[in-house]
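Example record for the data management plan.
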Amino acid sequence: MADGAGADREDGVPPPDPSRVDPQVLGTLLARHGWVRRGGPAGRYGRWTPPGGGPGTGLSLLIPVGRDHDDAADLIAEAVTALARSRLPSARAVLLALGVPGDEIRWDRELPGTGGAVPWEADAELRGAAAAMLTAAAKAGRSRAAFFGARLDGHAAAFLRRVLVAGPGSGAGRLTAYAPAPEGRGAATTLAGALAAMRDAVDYRRATGRLDAFDNAVRTGVSRELVGSVERLVRGSEGARIALAWSPAAGPPRGFADRPLELEFSPGDLPALAAAAERLERSEPAVEVRITGAVVRLDRPRPDGAGTVRLRVLSGAEVAEVAAGLDEAAYRVAARAHLAGVPLRLSGRLERRGGFRRLTRARDLAPCELDAAERERLFKALRERPEGPGTGGEEGVR
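Corresponding structural encoding:
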């Protein structure tokens, strides 16, 4: 092994089990990362050389087209070992994709004057922007909205727990993640369509000064949160790219080409993104809901009069908690329900201000009578659901 290959390194990527490597998937990944097929017996093998390589480089892989030949297993094992020992970034990327199946999402930020490294804050900002983008995509994959706020936080958190990050780190200004495929495709396909629509809407805004293309893009999955994540990715950089490549094992989803999607955003796009984020947040209306929730906190400034309650939402709205202002009579009903350990049912308007965490015009408030089994299910749900701000350790009547 020569020219870019060497001994195993501490920061190398652990090779996958060769017996689990599909040679067609391996070939697809090599081509995706710039390797070139330079012939071989037709229908039996292909000889692959790395980007910029060729005869004389000393590094090539002989990959069978399938596992039907006697030497297929040995050739795949040799190829995997060669990739594991190589110092080429493309070899590392191929190994990562083999070992971590899923749709590959990559973020790149161009940062000035780093000399191959990035400041600590820049790396944290990249990860924060990527997490915000995946959260927005997961929510939009479930339903469309111009502004989600706290709605669907639980659904998005569950999706993020299944996303794997190539680590430790993916290079200066770069982050690579793998979304589950095909079972997690809703978020990935939504992200692909929404980013393309956002790029078009930004171009339209820069050409005409109009923002209405963002309103139309909501149906593709564009939201205030997604726009904000791109704005966060670009700000402080000289430009950013988002690339999405479908899992070769699962194949491209219906309606999408097999080739990777790559989109770029520049600092010149920031005014359009900022204006679009403000417009989308303003455009999302309040929602009329009837919720059932457990009272986890009560607060009022004096022993009598109106007060505020915080409810852990059990049904009726896709948020974890809401706060509601109540008049004195309703506040007393809520306090009795809290002391009795029973939930309340009430109607009101879930306001976008505060991220849909506040219920206004509360009415028709009544406790829900529970039998022993229902009460146990309620307490179990409260124990399992993560607590929101202001509830941990301070629940009670004030």
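Summary line stored alongside the record: DSSP finds eleven helices and 13 strands in the chain.
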